[in-house]
């Protein structure tokens, strides 16, 4: 990569982290997207890409890259994210006066099929949480895994939110202050049965916790990686013959759906989940509407004629 582009690339990523407070996973994706684009252009032109070349790029150059991605069977969702990454990078170049113009804003994001959340039943959710503790040889690890899954299903946390908790976050309060996407804070009730599990884990954990320490730690007693919990769910799915939809995020979806089934209102669920838009939360009503439609189509006298 050309040194000028590499410097701009590094500064752009730093800006995303500091100003927009994007998660590490999002930054990794953005970094990969733009690097792939520059590598493609370099291969396509047979020469090293310069800042001047980026300034002079035509819309056809971008479309060639998108065509290349489609030929590799890259999903519409991923292509939409890649376009977002490119727009962000080129806007940064424009705003820092490294380029004078860009046609990247003319790129249209592909239409995406809206997928509905796929929750699991309350029985499966509870069985999954119990098995998370029982299948571990070391008691503290089993309690740790159970506590994390309890936070996903019992409090509706994202896995990143649960793993970003520190020891001091578990105190005499009956709620958690969660810092979610976009650095937005929300208050989430902490039920006694969830808090008790976490406190049992703390007692059994070999780490001597200080207030700023991560709450959930791995065997080396540093902050736990999300991949560990994803692997735990993979093992549980295999052991209990659960569907592929039984993922960490499915427990969060199930939290919202089961609350809705029990009479919870959308506004409250929106706040608990940390959704900035009610339209995101309204996906759960679509799940319930489909269930009602299926029940109607099977049982209603008119549907049988």
Topology of helices and strands:
Elements lengths: L2 H17 L4 H22 L5 H5 L3 H13 L4 H20 L26 H13 L4 H17 L3 H5 L11 E5 L5 E5 L2 H13 L21 H15 L7 H14 L4 H8 L4 H4 L1 H17 L6
Antiparallel strand pairs: 1-2
Helix pairs in contact: 1-2, 2-5, 6-7, 7-9, 7-11, 11-14
Please name the fourth-level CATH homologous superfamily of the largest domain. Intergrase catalytic core
How many domains? 2
The termini sit apart by 67 Å
State the shape.
elongated
The number of helices is 14
- Please identify the structural class as seen in this structure: mainly alpha
The number of strands is: 2
- Mean pLDDT equals 82
Largest sheet: 2 strands, antiparallel
Task: Give the CATH topology of the largest domain.
Answer: hpI Integrase, Chain A
CATH architecture descriptor text of the largest domain: Orthogonal Bundle
Q: Which residues form runs of ≥5 with pLDDT under 50?
A: 287-293
How would you explain this protein's 3D organization?
The chain contains 14 helices and two strands, in the order H-H-H-H-H-H-H-H-E-E-H-H-H-H-H-H. The termini are far apart. With 305 residues, the protein is mainly alpha-helical. The protein is elongated and about 60 Å long. A hairpin with a 5-residue loop joins strand 1 (175-179) and strand 2. Strands 1-2 form a two-stranded antiparallel sheet. It folds into two domains: 3-106, DNA polymerase, domain 1; 122-250, hpI Integrase, Chain A (Orthogonal Bundle). The longest helix has 22 residues, at 24-45. Helix content is 60%, strand content 3%.
């Amino acid at each position: 990569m050309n040194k000028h582009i590499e410097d701009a690339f590094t500064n752009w990523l730093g800006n995303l982290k500091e100003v927009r407070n994007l998660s590490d996973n999002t930054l990794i994706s953005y970094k990969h997207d733009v690097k792939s684009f520059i590598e493609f252009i370099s291969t396509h032109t047979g020469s090293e890409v310069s800042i001047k070349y980026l300034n002079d790029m035509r819309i056809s150059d971008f479309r060639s890259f998108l065509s290349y991605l489609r030929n590799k069977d890259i999903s519409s969702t991923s292509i939409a994210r890649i376009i977002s990454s490119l727009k962000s990078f080129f806007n940064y170049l424009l705003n820092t006066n490294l380029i004078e113009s860009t046609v990247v804003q003319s790129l249209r994001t592909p239409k995406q099929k809206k997928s509905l959340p796929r929750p699991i039943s309350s029985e499966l959710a509870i069985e999954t949480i119990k098995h998370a503790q029982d299948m571990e040889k070391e008691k503290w690890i089993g309690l740790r895994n159970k506590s994390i899954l309890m936070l996903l299903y019992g409090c509706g946390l994202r896995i990143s939110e649960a793993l970003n908790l520190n020891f001091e976050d578990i105190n005499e309060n009956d709620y958690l202050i969660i810092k979610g996407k976009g650095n937005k804070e929300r208050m989430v009730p902490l039920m006694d049965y969830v808090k008790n599990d976490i406190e049992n884990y703390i007692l059994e954990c070999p780490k001597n916790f200080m207030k700023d320490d991560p709450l959930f730690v791995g065997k080396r007693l540093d902050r736990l990686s999300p991949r560990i919990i994803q692997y735990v769910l993979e093992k549980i799915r295999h052991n209990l013959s659960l569907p592929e939809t039984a993922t960490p995020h499915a427990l969060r979806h199930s939290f919202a759906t089961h609350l809705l089934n029990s009479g919870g209102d959308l506004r409250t669920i929106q706040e608990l989940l940390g959704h900035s838009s009610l339209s995101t939360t309204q996906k759960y009503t679509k799940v319930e509407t489909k269930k009602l439609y299926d029940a109607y189509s099977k049982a209603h006298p008119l549907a049988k004629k």
